[in-house]
Design brief:
mainly alpha; single chain; 76% helix
Length: 389
Amino acid sequence: MNQQRLYYLDALRAFAMLLGIVLHAGMPLYPWRSWSGDESAQALSIDILMGSIHSFRMPLFFLLSGFFALMLLNRRGISGFFRHRMRRIALPFAAGYPVILMSMIGAYIAGYIVIAIVDPELGKELEAKAESGEESGGFDLMHLWFLWYLSLFVGTFALMMKFLQSIRIPEALQFTLRKVLMLTIPLLLLIPYLFMPRDGTPEVDTYSLLNWRMFTYYFGYFLFGALLFGQNTKSGQPLIEWIGNKWKFLLSVALTLLMFSFALTDFTKSSVWWFVYCVVHISACWCFCFGFIGLFNRYFSEGKYWIRYWSDASFFMYLMHLPVLVFMQAIVIPIPVPLIAKFLLQCLLAVGMLYVMYRFAVRYTWIGRLLNGKRTRDEDIVLKEALDN
């Protein structure tokens, strides 16, 4: 596969990362204060947006991670692949968790102070809840759960590839097994989803280190992405692009199925309707994944410097976005403007602040090297000239 044709996947991976900021901006990070008040229509529109993003964002991210995993493994071998991924995934998780945890605590304290000044009544309410211990919690992976699970996926995948290499499966049988897995994985994903809580969204359990439903569900997308790498149609077109050719149709079907699944959420207590919901929701997720792959292949296939830059920046921005959003939400909640305006203001302020942090305090420092590899200003100038001219 031509390296030039992978720029759109870099852009799509960054898009999936940055959508996390939008998703969490819509969450009431101060749960004791309702976002909506009497603005139910605006609150509902944000809930629909959040539900739509949550339905496909992480499956899409893990599918792309699996695709790039096999590509990297073919280049570096199993040992080289494992070391590289642990350095880029597990190490940032281990080093970043305490930093982000302390940043979250600091953001909440600063937010309390701001709210106590601008809204004394709410400040007293927060103080009472803090004294009662009502808002206290235990261990929490926070939004870093995806790094933890991705590390588990990488280790599992490396062991699987090591085992497959040791038994030396004939090439013809490998081909058959690959096709069988690609046909069965989308169906098998129903099993863990059926056991998830019936709240209408894919389960995200950040309070445990291993949730079998989350592991099997998201690892299915990771494995499917790995199976896609290197596969071509009879005409020679990469399979991942061929599936996304009908991206307009796929995204239309995805939105239709998603709206239908939203309508089914009131009936999920029934086992029959819960099964129907799971089938509809997973089908919508696959359509979203390949629809966005086709969309980004259509408009972002050319190598541009800004795509490379934002692909690098998105990792840091996602890692640090939650403390920033916590503080931003404390600022915007008391502002007497419509809910949609508060939501958009949060997104813009958070993205702007995170970009400035990355640009001036991360990209050319040891932090940037830890996250994305070494970058220098001179190399960026050369790369920009090469890609944009």
